[in-house]
């Protein structure tokens, strides 16, 4: 109680956390709960590193994609019982291509290469598999795997904008996809995660162990409240949010681009998880997770703010 | 074992010892002048630097010298006692006993014998020379006595105790040129064993080392590193290093082989002079019969590979003719096989 | 003092002890066994495995550090299914390519460095500058020059092998004793023949240790780099296997993969490097 | 044949040429300059920068490979703003800790390996097994034992430094000539004193090359590991700087960071390793 | 330059040469028996292994031997021409001219002079000995002639041409024991220069090397590695390696220093026998005056550090008394400074 160590990854999808910290929202809500909360945050790279940090007890709250949450939930069920706290908002993931011949995923040929963070296991890859399963049937869900290339977002974006390599498609995330689209007029959207998941969907989530939640109920509550306030803040003051992001991260990303991402009508800042079950069920179907999730409450904590989740 | 003594005097005992002693005292530190004269038949020129060498008083050695004096008194007392005792009582305990020692080297899966059942005794204060053909195992024997090479058969006893590894009581001069740590200057090379074996403190060791470097004619090279020296100079540093330690036992493996005649003679004189002072026991390998006769009290002749004892001769107190005869005798033996 | 002069002893003349060299005096088996390091190393291996098991059980966090037994089970399963073998095969093949190329380049660079002063400075600057560069720095270059796939991996591997080996080899070459150099020159050897026939064999102890380090770093680099380049069309190697299982939190399989890396490392050490060492530098008395 | 016997020539007897050792005959300045490797290395550095510029302009892909001039500009900007210096300071501090600890452990392990047969086998097995292990393998252990933060980084750094240095040092120690060992033993040195006063100095050429390799690998590992262990509250080092700029597609800043790594590497080589080498092994004639 | 010849016969010329030749022919390959007798005053025992050594016919050397014969004919023709020409015409062109050579070593920032303006000529086929105190620069001179050390002053001419680096035409035996590549067996060590310099093919080189190993008494160690040899054995391998090459010029730096008297004499005889066959030019460093007189046609005496020329003596065709006188003369010179 009174200590909160948060691990996040890099990027604008963690904007809510940035705002909550910058505005000292967590400390504020802690006071009203009657605890002095010391917030520490670390930036790590990659879902696995974050999961390991959480499992080793080095951090209390982890921020990562829905994919790592589902994996961790599945593996720790009956043990640490890791579940989600809240969503950090809905962001669309775009599959973009610079090959004019590619309009839908059915147009990919053997000459195309799709860059994404990790072949087969990343969220982007799962979404692409889900789309493939819809297109060609469940048995062919990994039909496009052989075109996939694991490449960090920055390198993939650079390759897409400037050409010169075999990579001509990228399943990215904000703000890389926006940069890609802005950097090269030939780049266009082939697939959006929202199309596949059935509407606006949570991209990144926060999660923790059952133990932490049980032992630190006040801190937990204060944290959730702070997130809710941050979401409200961002929706109301996008410019200020962008400023906070730039200041906090020491980011040199142009303000306009940030604002474009924040103001994107497809982007919504709300802490209730949305449209995650489709992905969860799919992952179970293809055997990536063993436990079958029946509702979002399985892998999110049963909190009021999650009640409306899907 | 067909031992046949070829010199009449067997146990010349105390009287002979006293004669010898008087002779030595007369000759002073320089050893027997007659000896020098006939060993270096070609020239009897007095060696210049002996005079110079005596000058430094070496005050830093005083504490030890006092101890030495006490020892000397004790030794004298023992010697007085000795007069009554049967002579062999005093000489019974050899400093070094090499007892049927065989030395083997492992090569791949076989083993190669370097020496085969070699036996000899070295008495305290004796200068003992090993002679033999190249490759007969002289260096191996020396290394075994130094504690570097285990005997595969037989025992090596030092004062009756089996040797248990190397130690600064048996300083060695090796045959190879690379025996000087290249990262120490010439001076430090000589001083290091003195400090390493805790004989002297650093300052004392350096003073003492400087003195010894002057004695081997390398005073001007104290600051040089070994790789800047010629072969003979390296060997002289090794000699200085060993002599500076004044060990109870000194092992020297062809120490003067790389030296020109003059330097060699100087080194021999230094060695003998130090022996006069310290009466250490010396095990000395050489391939020069002349040198063996000059340096040695006793000479052990080994037969070629693998080395076995061929003969052992007394070489002290011989006159010129006897010496010549012994030299020829040894040469004959070496040629034999 | 004078009384301490040694007493004269009688001469003796012996017929030398007969010595018949017993032709093959093989070292007894038990002695050879006692000296063979294989069983001692195997024992240490088992001991380490035991330590691992204990540490894991104490930590009691099998998603983070599974016990050795779990990893062993996973190892056996995946070996039996052939997956691990296939993946190890893919990795090894790449590794050997990159390693071979790296070794050739390193020795070439060393030869150049011994030949001229400029070569020496070039090697010194290049290693000082490029050796600390992490693989990320090379990623864009590899993408641009070699594209995706094996060639980029080989490029990254060469980077891992080249510098440490070149450093070790050139240090070894500089330490070749002057006399040996003179002997070689005296035979009329110059240029590449001099390097190949005198300097490299004389520097072999250093080169061997460089080869060992380079081998290890090639593995490290490969496993890290396969994430980026390895896995188009499911052909990933061990690095890919480890990465994927890590992503799916199949920690026992991750450690099974790592254990295979360890085993391969140990086997290569025993079968290749130790053997080379025994047959060369040890046999030649250049190393104990 | 016999006519080829040399003809007799008259004897000659000379008063030897007087020779007064001209006390200090310093080597001329231009010769010292010509031999100093500093300017040649600097020239090579400039040349490499030129090559980079050309390659970048040819590739014309400033997001993947910015030209040298752009990186230089970014370098100057960030150096001036103090950011790079701060980050380099953070990294260097960690690096020195890990490096120092690794060196101590490596030398200790080497000493152990020289002392006993078990120690030797232990070192051989440990290096063969752990050296190829990528840092991922250590992350869980580091997390379990040290948590997030500097201590884990130091642990990973030690892993990077320990094995290559131990390998190089023990190879060097095994190659110490027998005569030198005997001389040392003869002084009565045993155990640690023997190792410290004889074996290590005699193995210094190998140890130095091991130190160089270890230094480079410490850098590589640090920059890669900073991503895993992250930056708390903006306190990341150079690795984090590179990672962040890469994420924001500020490729020129990425290369500015890498250039700083290169520069530091080169400076350390010139100021530390070269100097040590010149003052020890070169001066002692153990290396040319 | 106060050159004063101490032997009356100055340019004894062709007649003297013929006498010398007859004398040598009488003595056979063994060299002058008288020489042997007084050099090794202590024993005139015939050396056993010379008889054995002549046995192998060395067929693999035939092709070269034919070429040699042709050369010999040419040489003979030249020699006939020589009879009419003034003697100095034939001897004017030395094989090796060392022309006021100074050698310096760089140490830190200073340079240390090893030899100072040394000048001497070595005629074709001459056996030339360098004598001097330890550290006077003999090895440095040899290395300079071998092309390993640049002269900092003066020139070194080989057949009138400045030397341009080392080469197999000037095979060297170095003073150090570590001159044998440790990764080659003894046999390969001897055979390697033959193949490396493309004198023989591999099989021929091995046969020839085997023959030479037998001559230095190491036939049984052909398969051993250098580290398994004693110091003297290593030096013998180096000697065999150099002699097997039958180079035009041979540089030997105290080659026999590590050998016992008997082996040393055998090696000397091998060297002289090979010289009889091949008439190479020999530059030989030794610190034994006796050896210098035995091996050398001419002896150069150097003064101590830094080495300067002190004297140069003719040593061929001396009778016992002259030889003794010369020896004493040289000794005197060496003691002088
Ligand atoms: N390290 C070794 N390994 C194998 N055999 C060795 C080794 N050292 C010496 N020998 C063998 O042991 C025998 C004796 O060698 P040792 O060095 O003792 O001879 P030595 O009498 O000193 O000869 P020298 O007068 O030539 O120095 C030789 O036959 C040699 O081959
Ligand atoms: N590598 C070197 N660096 C510096 N000085 C050297 C080097 N080698 C030799 N010297 C110096 O040059 C001088 C001559 O050495 P050199 O080896 O030629 O003597 P040498 O006549 O062969 O002596 P020795 O008979 O002892 O072998 C010595 O004073 C020595 O200190
Ligand atoms: Mg010996
Ligand atoms: Mg010399």
From TrEMBL, chains B, E:
Molecular function GO terms recorded: ATP binding
InterPro entries documented for this protein: AAA+_ATPase, ABC_transporter-like_ATP-bd, ABC_transporter-like_CS, ABC_transporter_ATP-bind, P-loop_NTPase
Cleaved signal peptide residues: none
Keywords per UniProt: ATP-binding, Cell membrane, Membrane, Nucleotide-binding, Transport
Boundaries of every ABC transporter domain copy: 96-329
Family annotation (PANTHER family): ABC TRANSPORTER ATP-BINDING PROTEIN, TAURINE IMPORT ATP-BINDING PROTEIN-RELATED
Family membership: Belongs to the ABC transporter superfamily.
Protein name (record): NitT/TauT family transport system ATP-binding protein
Organism of derivation: Roseateles terrae
From TrEMBL, chains C, D:
Family annotation (Gene3D superfamilies): MetI-like
Major location (coarse): membrane
InterPro entries according to UniProt: MetI-like, MetI-like_sf
Listed transmembrane segments: 94-116, 122-146, 153-174, 194-215, 222-243, 255-273
Keywords recorded for this protein, A-Z: Cell membrane, Membrane, Transmembrane, Transmembrane helix, Transport
Name of a matching Pfam family: BPD_transp_1
KW Nucleotidyltransferase (keyword) present: no
Annotated signal peptide: none
Cross-referenced SUPFAM superfamilies: MetI-like
Organism superkingdom: Bacteria
Membrane topology according to the record: Multi-pass membrane protein
Location of the ABC transmembrane type-1 domain: 88-273
Localization: Cell membrane
Family: Belongs to the binding-protein-dependent transport system permease family.
PANTHER family recorded: ABC TRANSPORTER PERMEASE PROTEIN, ALKANE SULFONATE ABC TRANSPORTER-RELATED, MEMBRANE SUBUNIT
Protein name (record): NitT/TauT family transport system permease protein
